[in-house]
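Chapter summary example.
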Amino acid sequence: MQKNDQPHPPHCAAMESDIDRIVKVQKKAFLSHGSPSAQERINLLKRLRQAILLNREPLMEAIDRDFGHRSKDESFYAEIFSSLQTLHHTAKNVKKWMRPSWRMPGLYFMPALAKVHYQPLGVVGVIVPWNYPLYLMVGPLAYALAAGNRVIIRMSKCTPSLAALLKNIFRETFDEDQVALFTGDEISGSEFTKKPWDHLLFTGSTDAGREVMRAAADNLTPVTLELGGKSPAIISREVPMKDAAERIAWGKMLNSGQTCVAPDYVLCPKERIDEFTGSFREAVQKAYPTLKNNPDFTGIENDQQFSHLNALLEDAKAKGATIVEINPANEDFSNIRKMAPKLILNISEEMLIMQKEIFGPLLPVIPYDSLDEAISFVNNRPRPLALYYFDYNRANMDAVIQKSFSGGVAINDTMVHVGQENMPFGGVGMSGMGKYHGREGFITFSNAKGVLIKPRFNSGKIVYPPYGTRIHALIKKLFLRL
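The structure predicted for these 482 residues follows.
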């Protein structure tokens, strides 16, 4: 989920020295304290959960101010509830995740014991985007703390109200040698990535992700990148159109489409395009009878994103696209940072809307003749973060799952796979690298250290030099039979 502001010019020296000081403080604390116990980690997670619970109303109000208008219900479900669920699940499972994993040593190394210990990496940096600024801060923080790390967070410049509130909350909740938070005005994204992190997690655009990797390379910092991309929704020939359109509309309209896993375009059988257009319109009208002053309908978060959406729209119009606006009450959106949802028909490849992630309530609809053609269309483009397929035919479901390539898949729904705490979440290829939900999140922020323990008896002596003995010849014969 996305999108972070692009790297900014260098910040003032005073703020740069402040983060350098805290990085050193956290590294020193990590080395002196070592790996925290399970109970210490659980206490940190519970402390954060309680802070969010107690401050849920101010947090939602701050997000609303930053957006211009953010649906309170969307903020509750997508930010507050989701964050609390992540923290609850993580605290509940951290003891189990921390247990060493026993492995079977190779036959020729017996007798021996082999196991994997999961140790914290050290100090983790987290760069938070503006679209789900609380949830996409809490998730990485929860898994990093569960793995025993110390964490420094950089919020987006586009969420100043939330960042200021969180900064105060964190000062009351954590010592700075455990968790620290910087606002987007205190340090730029480009400077933040240059610090000597033991791991860096970034959520944002693909272009910014490239810059993050370049900066992180100087310190050989391992990175987790969640970059979004153009997530397709494929509609089958047989699925009831009402089911597909309603669920696609929900995924596209939530947060006004400003979600990294929102359906970015629809692949629809060419003979069902009109049916989809009508069903999608009905689904939107039912959920949002009005738009302009509807508290359920979220605005576009910032001027830059609003301009981006209008540029995509104007480019598509100029290149021959047909625009189907869905504006149930025929409202005027002048001088307001809201946008009525629009279906984009008669798409061509040279349109910018098919080249860039949309991140708003614009939805291209592309006809196809066969399911294999639809899968090929997806696979011949950069790997998407998510793929959605609508069909109740098991064989077709399996074909899409096996033949397509994406970070994750949801069948007969959109976006809900992200909230499954027991499943990994992340991109592949151009949509990102690394996973950070559930146990995979714990492992991402851990060093899986392999440990082999040998007893007093040393079976390995049989291969010690001098070589060329009969026992060496026998061992070679045995090895070659494996």
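To summarize the output: The longest helix spans residues 72-98.
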